[in-house]
UniProtKB/TrEMBL annotation:
Keywords: ATP-binding, Cell projection, Cytoplasm, Cytoplasmic vesicle, Golgi apparatus, Lipoprotein, Membrane, NAD, Nucleotide-binding, Nucleotidyltransferase, Pyridine nucleotide biosynthesis, Transferase. It comes from Hucho hucho. Pfam families: CTP_transf_like (PF01467). Transmembrane segments: none annotated. Its main location: other. Gene3D superfamilies: HUPs (3.40.50.620). Pathway: Cofactor biosynthesis; NAD(+) biosynthesis; deamido-NAD(+) from nicotinate D-ribonucleotide: step 1/1; Cofactor biosynthesis; NAD(+) biosynthesis; NAD(+) from nicotinamide D-ribonucleotide: step 1/1. Its cofactor is Mg(2+). GO terms for molecular function: ATP binding; nicotinamide-nucleotide adenylyltransferase activity; nicotinate-nucleotide adenylyltransferase activity. CDD domains: NMNAT_Eukarya. It catalyses: nicotinate beta-D-ribonucleotide + ATP + H(+) = deamido-NAD(+) + diphosphate; beta-nicotinamide D-ribonucleotide + ATP + H(+) = diphosphate + NAD(+). Its EC number is 2.7.7.1, 2.7.7.18. This is Nicotinamide/nicotinic acid mononucleotide adenylyltransferase 2.
Length: 308
């Protein structure tokens, strides 16, 4: 497949990130690497969306700290961004709502309809405006021999989204601008297929099987309409989990399980282990957290108490 015919993907990860760990970033990297190896996908961006303060999880530090730690963790990345929208809402948002927000945001930014697993290939995608009168944000003033790459596409999209949702804001300040702000014109990109996929660990996959925890309608949208990419942790049998849920079984083709040949110890994703290491003065905390995140935690006196 050529790059033009591959599905372009934005990975979205929701969670507490309390604090964000090296493992969280590793999940993005492993997922991108695996999706590229399939030959079907090009991952052009990643979004980290920390949960709202009202989520109510014990020991959850205020979002201003979690947003800053996330920003510190990805400051050297050229493709992973931190988005504060979820934190800035009046109350906690469901994962389904966060996915739908970013889908709708992409529509406004690109002026196009995003495709998903249940959308025919003829559905307009990036490069095809939804109507004739709308000015496409990606307006190509170059020749066809100088076509933009997927990375340039994400860079331009990030620049544009930054004007309305602070995808990559200044580390000390997360502010909103009017979502109807004039985004201006930029390069028009050739037609590609773009999808937003939920990136998660096998623990979230397991939670789908807990009766009453998720609305069936939300699960159908998350797995059926968007699709998920699962990075297994600690040798969990993802096949068994999927067979335990009727929704997961029905939408198994929309679930991509990342196979890690290196058998990386994904347990370092655990924020709980990181907090315990901090509370006990365990030097192994450097295995879990980036040094910049550790420095911020110590400076802000976070996770000192044993609660949570």
């Amino acid at each position: 497949m050529t790059d033009n015919t591959k599905t372009h993907v934005i990975l979205l990860s929701c969670g507490s990130f309390n604090p964000i760990t090296k493992g969280h970033i590793h999940m993005f990297e492993k997922a991108r690497e695996y999706l590229h190896k399939t030959g079907k996908f090009i991952v052009i961006g990643g979004i980290i969306s920390p949960v709202h303060d009202s989520y109510g999880k014990p020991g959850l530090v205020p979002s201003r700290h979690r947003l800053t730690m996330c920003q510190l963790a990805v400051q050297s990345s050229d493709w992973i961004r931190v988005d504060p929208w979820e934190c800035y809402q009046d109350t906690w948002q469901t994962t389904c709502s966060v996915l739908e927000h970013h889908r709708d945001l992409m529509k406004r930014v690109t002026g196009c309809i995003l495709s998903n697993v249940n959308t025919p290939s003829t559905t307009p995608v990036i490069g095809q405006p939804q109507n004739e009168t709308q000015t496409a944000i990606y307006q190509n003033h170059n020749t066809m021999n100088n076509k933009p790459t997927a990375i340039k596409l994400w860079g331009k999209m990030s620049e544009s989204m930054g004007k309305i949702c602070c995808v990559r804001p200044h580390i000390d300040r997360f502010t909103f601008v009017d979502e109807n702000a004039n985004l201006g014109t930029a390069m028009r990109y050739e037609e590609i297929e773009l999808r937003i996929l939920l990136l998660c660990g096998s623990d979230l996959l397991e939670s789908f099987c807990i009766p009453g925890l998720w609305k069936d309608s939300d699960m159908e949208v998350i797995v059926g309409d968007f699709g998920i990419v699962v990075v297994p942790r600690d040798g969990v049998d993802t096949e068994r989990i999927m067979n335990h849920s009727s929704v997961l079984r029905k939408n198994k083709d929309n679930i991509t399980v990342v196979k890690d040949d290196a058998n990386h110890p994904m347990s370092i994703v655990s924020s709980t282990k990181s907090r315990l290491a901090l509370q006990h003065g365990d030097g192994h905390v450097v295995d879990y957290l980036n040094q910049t995140v550790i420095d911020y935690i110590l400076q802000s006196q976070l996770y000192i108490n044993a609660s949570g």
